[in-house]
Write a structure and sequence with these properties.
9 helices, 5-stranded mixed β-sheet, 5-stranded antiparallel β-sheet, Heat Shock Protein 90, Helix Hairpins, rod-shaped
Length: about 475
């Protein structure tokens, strides 16, 4: 059962219980008040009749010709009266009883207590009153309670009409209120279902004065927009990855197929294997980069530890040393030791390796790649500079997009899939820092990594402590 139905049901039950109890109490109070008026009139009239019966007949008792009791504005009611002797036989009776009043033993309680009785299908209200100077004799005085019963019946019908009208109105009102209160919730639910079905163009259009609902709609819209960006990025990434992997796979497949098409000499086989090996190497590097990019989100749960940035820079340079030797490029590393930050050692080493590797590939033969690690306030900077052609101003932000390769890289068929700098920036941002291109550099390129120092410990103090210990 939905919230709306439960709420309306609860309101309906509460209204029925409250209104039903109130109307019942009113009905009982009104009917009781009218009956008390009739009972008081009956008692007063019976006492007067008893005195007159004793005075009129002497030894013989008789009923006066007084009219019946008057309990309302209509006037005197029809009089039903009878006198019973001590042994219970009827001494006198009004014509309304037709000479045969009900036996006294069938009547109600004793003196001055009113009771109901039926006589030939007519509902009466009566009272028994003793007659002065005649022990044991009693006077029965009764009057029709037709008006009383009619008023009670009318009141009951009116109360039932009010009850059902009020309950129906309360149900309609509760339904309207719930619809008004949950209208925005339903709109948000509909948008959520559309998004779950794949429609990322759905947005919540809240027109409510409720600040909380409006903020919820705004937050959901922002979430959908981010999800749209992420899905679009994922699709673009997959398409770009497939495109980049197609080239080395095609080369690998083509060389191997060509080599096996017919018998060849050893040199031809060797040449085909070397070209296939180069394509396989490019494919392996690209696969490693893709895996590294995928692992960045999974590394959040790994334990962090204090990491020496200069030490990771040296390890990264060792990993790139073979490529630097092939290009006759020197890698110089200098900086302050014991500059610590809290993070993932493996990822930080990959960050620096990507930057150094990128600088080596863009450096001319016999060039130099300069790596400097130093502290500036609460930030550790690791700057990697090369002597290459530099990065054009129009490409300084685009180089951080996955699979983007500049005009020079595409024209020169340089190795790489355009993932090194994007991976480096993601690692830096995961550690609270960033990777930037130094716009002031006029010769070559200078890529700067800025990372926060370890909290709870001063990197400079750690360095000085290490120097005192002989590190």
């Amino acid at each position: 059962m939905s919230f709306r139905r439960r709420f309306v049901g609860a309101v309906s039950v509460m209204t029925m219980a409250t209104l039903g109890g109130a109307l019942m109490a009113i009905s009982i109070a009104v009917n009781g008040s009218q009956q008390r008026q009739l009972d008081e009139a009956l008692r007063a009239e019976a006492a007067e009749e008893a005195r007159e019966a004793s005075a009129l007949g002497g030894d013989e008792l008789a009923i006066s010709d007084r009219p019946g009791p008057a309990a309302n504005d209509v006037g005197p009611l029809t009089k039903y009266a009878a006198i019973f002797a001590a042994d219970g036989h009827v001494v006198a009776a009004t014509p309304t009883f037709n000479g045969s009043p009900p036996p006294i033993e069938t009547l109600g309680p004793g003196s001055n207590e009113c009771f109901d009785l039926w006589f030939r299908g007519e509902h009466l209200r009566g009272v028994l009153s003793p007659i002065p100077a005649h022990p044991g004799t009693r006077l029965l005085l009764a009057a029709p309670r037709t008006d009383l019963d009619g008023d009670a019946s009318f009141l009951a019908r009116a109360m039932l009409t009010v009850f059902f009208v009020a309950v129906g109105w309360s149900v309609l009102l509760a339904t309207w209120i719930v619809r008004r209160l949950t209208r925005e919730h339903e709109a948000i639910t509909l948008v959520a279902r559309r998004v779950a079905a794949g429609d990322l163009s759905a947005r919540v259009a809240t027109r409510t004065g409720d600040a909380e609902i409006a903020q919820l709609g705004k937050d959901i819209n922002e979430m959908i927009e981010r999800l749209d960006v992420l899905v679009a990025s994922q699709h673009r990434f997959i398409a770009q990855a497939a495109h980049e992997m197609r080239s080395p796979l095609t080369t690998l497949y083509g060389e191997l197929s060509h080599a096996l098409r017919k018998p060849r000499d050893a040199d031809t086989y060797r040449q085909a294997i070397e070209e296939a090996l180069e394509a396989a190497r490019r494919l392996k590097l690209m696969t490693d980069d893709l895996l590294a990019l995928a692992r960045l989100g999974a590394d959040v749960g790994e334990p962090s530890e204090p990491v020496d940035v200069l030490d990771r820079a040296r390890a990264a340079a060792e990993a790139v040393a073979w490529e630097a030797r092939e290009r006759d490029t020197r890698i110089d590393i200098r900086g302050d030791a014991r500059l610590l930050l809290v993070g993932h050692s493996r990822n930080l080493e990959r960050l620096l390796r990507n930057l150094i590797e990128n600088a080596v590939r863009h450096s001319p033969t016999g060039g130099c790649v300069d790596v400097v690690v130093e502290q500036r306030g609460d930030v550790i900077e690791a700057a990697v500079s090369d002597e290459g052609p530099g990065i054009p101003e129009a490409e300084r932000e685009r180089v951080f997009e996955p699979f983007y390769r500049g005009v020079r890289e595409r024209a020169g068929d340089m190795p790489g899939a355009g993932l090194g700098l994007p991976i480096a920036r993601q690692i830096a941002r995961a550690h609270g820092g960033d990777v930037l291109i130094d716009a002031a550099r006029t010769k070559g390129s200078r890529v700067v990594v800025r990372l926060p120092v370890a909290r709870g410990g001063d990197a400079v103090g750690d360095r000085r402590e290490g120097e005192r210990a002989g590190v």
